[in-house]
Amino acid sequence: MTIMQKIGQNRYLQSIMRGMMLVLPATIMSSFATLLKVLPIAAYQDFIALHNLAPFFDIPINFTNNFLAVLVSFSVAYTLAKSFNVDGFTAGLISMISFFILTPYELGEMGPLGQAYSIPNEWLGAMGLFTGIMVAFISARIFVAITQKGLIIRMPEGVPEFISKSFSALVPGLVILTGFTVLSATITINGLGSVHEIIYGIIQSPLTNLGSGIGSVIVVSIVAQTLWFFGLHGHAITLGIVAPIWFAMDAAQLAAFSAGAPTPNITGFAFFMTYTAGDLLPLAFMLAFMARSQRYKTLGRISLPPAVFTIGEPMAYGVPLVMNFALAIPYILLNSVMLFAAYYLTVAGILPAVAGVMTPAGMPVIVSGFMQGSWKIAAFQFFSLFIRFAGWYFFFKIADRIAFAEEKAEEMSNAEQSGEGTAVEDGALQPAEAKG
Fold first, then answer.
1. Which residue ranges does the record annotate as region Disordered (predicted)?
2. What is the predicted pLDDT for the residue at 106?
3. Neighbouring residues of 111: CB distance < 8 A, sequence distance ≥ 6
4. What residue spans of 230-327 are helical by DSSP H?
5. What's this model's pTM, rounded to 2 decimal places?
6. Cα–Cα separations (whole angstroms), residue 273 to 3, 19, 173, 191, 306
7. β-strands 422-425, 114-118: how paired?
8. How many whole angstroms separate alpha carbon 168 and alpha carbon 147?
């Protein structure tokens, strides 16, 4: 638990997760634009084609999902600098500029406003995500180190804060941008391509291949649920580790889906969240309507509405599922079973690959399936609820029997303490059964 807590509290993993969450509005915007563009209704698609509206849907997609690496280079640096109590906005701005410095560009023709530049968008989206994260780490740490050592230009008191911050950023900005410029020039001059190509080839591509198999997805699921069982936020710990890999896969998936091209991946963050959605909903239903224990009945009726919106904390800490060995097996393993089934149904062509859509937190099960681009995914989510119900049922009955027995024992104890259920005979207390 100590090791897992340290991983979960790691400053760099937290900055990745928080940085990703900061750009969530952009990714959701891209997801909705993609869904509106490819909505499989013949009359709707005819209308789109007739009025040539598809390019207008591509505009938000290009500047959100296909611009993801740029946004992340800002947001991760911002959150990392803020964790050191340093100006996050300036750190993020310098990181984003550094990312563009490392990005290859092409010179165009000389126009009336000067030389034209063209930046290929292949490195601005999913393929440049790891570069964006690494640039954010390096630039933010240098910015923090220089700022904390006081090697900055300080303005006298009375100068407006925005002016003071501008001058205080000059020295770290000059050092960071110069360093990345020298790095980019060195790699280009020596014919090594670009920093993007090096990082993608050495780090991102191998990690994507490693993290895209069903084995790694199941390992993440089991570890996450085991950590939840011990009272730790399993998803915050495990998904923080795989987030760069899976988010990059989702970005590539969504870009291909939007373009009508074959999707490159099966798994990813969207796959994981889609097929683990609704994991506690059947248990909440059983607690609310099938439990003999009054505690479980009350808790189930309270927990059922949140469970519909995939919020399981009331049950995790209320049943509790934490350290509850009667419910440990389904709690830890059921998600893995559903992920395994969904993967091989996708491989077999029965289920389509998820579109990589980033759905908002709390999106109900089945609705999230439709948002991944197919009614078949939603149908699988629906039938998975019955499979989960069967998986929970036996263990639920055991837990309910234990809770019911505890309540009866408590009632008997309270009755004895209050004098109820006893009869006085010859001046002595006798059990109530003796009267019969």
1. 413-436
2. 78
3. none
4. 234-259, 269-276, 281-290, 294-308, 313-318
5. 0.76
6. 25, 19, 39, 42, 16
7. unpaired
8. 8
- Count of alpha carbons within 13 Å of 292, Cβ hemisphere only? 13
Q: What is the pLDDT of residues 264-317, one digit of tens each?
A: 889 988 999 999 998 999 999 999 999 999 989 998 898 898 888 888 878 887
What does the chain come to in residues? 436
Whole-angstrom Cα distance, residue 368 to residue 31? 12
Is the N-terminal amide bond of 320 cis, ω within 30° of 0?
Answer: yes
Looking up tokens 């959150």, which residue turns up? Answer: 79
Q: Answer whether 188's CB lies under 8 Å from 194's CB.
A: yes
The 10s digit of each residue's pLDDT in 342-392 is: 999 999 999 999 998 887 777 889 988 988 888 999 999 999 999 999 999
Report d(CA 6, CA 22) in Å as an integer. 23
Residue 83 CB: number of other CB atoms within 10 A? 16
> Hey, what amino acid is at 426?
D
Q: How many CB atoms lie within 10 A of CB 379?
A: 14
